[in-house]
Amino acid sequence: MVAKKIENNVFIFAVENAFLHKGKASEGAVLGKALSSDPSLKDDIVKLRTHISKAVKDANKLSIDEMETLLRKENPDFFEKKEIAERELPELPGAEMGKVVTRLAPEPNGYLHIGHAVSFFFNHYYAKKYSGKLILRFEDTNPEKESTEYYDAIKEDLAWLGIKYDKIKRNSDDIELFYKHAESLIDSGNAYVCRCPVEKSRKLRYDGEECLCRKNSSKENLELFREMKKTLKQGSATLRLKLDMKSKNTTLRDPTIMRIVEAAHPLQGTKYRVWPLYDFANAIEDAKCGVTHVLRSNEFQQRDELQNNIRELLGMDSPHIISYSRINLEGTPTSKREIQKLIDSGKVSGWDDPRLATLQALRRRGIVPETLERLAKEVRMTSGSTTISMDALNTINRKILSPTAKHYFFVPSPEKIEVKSKGTFYIPKEDAKSMKKGEIFRLKDLFNVKFIGKGEVEFDSDKVKSNTKKLQWVSSDSIETEILVPETGKTIKGLSQKEVGKLKVGEIIQFERVGFAIIESTGKPIKCILSHE
Ligand SMILES: [Zn+2]
Question: Going by CATH, does the domain composed of 88-327 fall within 3.40.50.620?
Answer without folding.
Answer: yes
